[in-house]
């Protein structure tokens, strides 16, 4: 994956049939830094005047996730939220339970542990996902975007 000016990921081609609607979903993802639900992305597209069905949004997000072009997390209520990967490399996330802020981190120790524990049990071709949930420094100090936040903050976690 390449990096666009400003540090964001560039628009990656959407796997499957290339359509104007799929391109609109991919472009909407490029415009946001934080995780968004399929419904939120659909609303963004609708407000912009793009005629894209919610089913198409879900299918496009799934296609992008399967290709490794977007990160997917689950909120406390089980809803999937999506964000463009800022790196094409395997990574993990630190996620704030209060405001939903997510930071991509590398975890060499986690990688080694996963390989070791899998080998000890005879597993091969191992894949894993690790998300670490907590409260970001800004929210912990009461100064973060989630300070006093109500339902608009996307709580994420276990």
Automatic annotation (TrEMBL):
Textual note on the cofactor: Binds 1 Mn(2+) or Fe(2+) ion per subunit. Binds 1 zinc ion per subunit.
The keyword Plastid is annotated on this UniProt entry: no
Top-level division of the source organism's lineage: Bacteria
Residue positions binding Fe cation: 90, 111, 128
Location of this chain's protein in the cell: Cytoplasm
GO CC, one annotated term: cytosol
Protein name from the UniProt record: Transcriptional repressor
Biological source species: Streptomyces niveus (Streptomyces spheroides)
